[in-house]
Design brief:
Layout (H helix, E strand, L loop, with lengths): L1 H4 L1 H22 L2 E2 L1 H4 L1 E8 L6 H8 L7 E6 L3 E6 L4 H11 L7 E9 L1 H29 L9 H30 L2 E2 L1 H31 L5 H33 L5 H39 L1
Parallel strand pairs: 1-6
Antiparallel strand pairs: 2-4, 2-5, 3-4
Helix pairs in contact: 2-7, 2-10, 6-7, 6-8, 7-8, 7-10, 8-9, 8-10, 9-10
Function: Part of the Sec protein translocase complex. Interacts with the SecYEG preprotein conducting channel. SecDF uses the proton motive force (PMF) to complete protein translocation after the ATP-dependent function of SecA.
Protein name: Protein-export membrane protein SecF
Subcellular location: Cell membrane
Length: about 300
């Protein structure tokens, strides 16, 4: 009952976080990775020791081959993302990485992704997100088709979509900060993280909505507000503990996993946290708010 009683506070927190995230997206923007805009990916492993990243960054600035992003991998390796390279530029990059041959290295991988491939990946990523969103809406509309009083079944789906937008926008806003200050780029893992957040978030929301549906059928309370409050009391701890177990695994990946998936794990962690928050403190209170608005509107007629 506490959550429903103070619903305006929790709804205000969500609105503020979403607005801050949108502002961050417009102010900082997102760095698009080579997966989508095309470019070259080079992975090297040093034989003796790995040079300091700041020293290599300083040397890269003297090269006339565009922007270069370098990320450590393993104990002795680096992953270098750059624009598409010619053979001469590729040789110059390896020469710089080896510090003019003074620090031997082995090139483990070199891939070049053309702009056309990047555009195709972008198109498929957008289609995947749209199809997943449509699938979620259709599923919720079907699952709650028999729930019509006092809130129409389609409004459950609408509130779930509002929660999904909340759960995706906030992690993206956080990612723009990582992108601006730490050079994190939007790649295929970013899209996977967004799709995963959509799935995990909506499953949590549906569990709570299903409890509301059952309690409405059983008429455990006399009014909608109390029914939603009782449903949250019965299910919020389950949602928190379930999400907490996933967050612990994701944090383990962030702290102990390979460098290449750290941002992926961090974005998923944020998505799980805010997804749990929205399922408990946003979606259900919004249902109550809609019911109150309907009641007030009917009372005025």
């Amino acid at each position: 009952m506490f959550i429903i009683k103070h619903k305006k506070i929790f709804l205000s927190i969500s609105v503020i976080l979403v607005l801050l995230s949108i502002a961050s997206i417009f102010i900082f923007g997102l760095q698009i990775g080579i997966d989508f805009k095309g470019g070259a990916l080079t992975e090297v492993v040093y034989t003796n020791y790995r040079p300091v990243q700041a020293d290599l960054d300083a040397q890269f600035k003297t090269l006339d081959i565009g922007s270069i992003l370098i990320q450590p991998t393993g104990e002795l390796g680096y992953i270098i993302k750059s624009v598409d390279l010619t053979e001469i530029q590729h040789s110059l990059l390896l020469k710089t990485l080896s510090q003019d041959g003074k620090n031997p290295l082995e090139e483990k991988d070199f891939n070049s992704i053309g702009p056309s491939v990047g555009r195709e990946l972008t198109r498929k990523a957008i289609i995947a997100i749209v199809l997943v969103s449509i699938g979620i809406i259709l599923f919720i509309a079907f699952a709650f088709r028999k729930v019509s009083k006092p809130v129409s079944s389609w409004k459950y789906g609408l509130m779930a979509i509002v929660s999904l937008l909340h759960d995706v926008i906030i992690p993206i806003g956080l990612f723009t900060i990582l992108s601006h200050f730490y050079g994190a780029e939007v790649d295929t893992l970013f899209v996977v993280a967004a799709l995963t957040i959509l799935g995990l978030s909506v499953s949590d929301t549906i569990v709570i909505f299903d409890r509301i549906r059952e309690n409405l059928r059983n008429k455990i309370e006399t009014n909608f507000n109390d029914t939603v409050g009782r449903s949250l009391d019965q299910s919020y701890m389950r949602s928190i503990f379930t999400s907490l177990t996933v967050i612990i695994v994701l944090l383990s990946l962030f702290f102990f996993g390979p460098e290449s998936i750290k941002y992926f794990a961090l974005m998923l962690t944020a998505g799980m946290f805010f997804g749990t928050y929205s399922s408990i403190f946003l979606a259900s209170p919004l249902l109550v708010l809609i019911e109150e608005l309907q009641t007030n509107k009917q009372a005025k007629k």
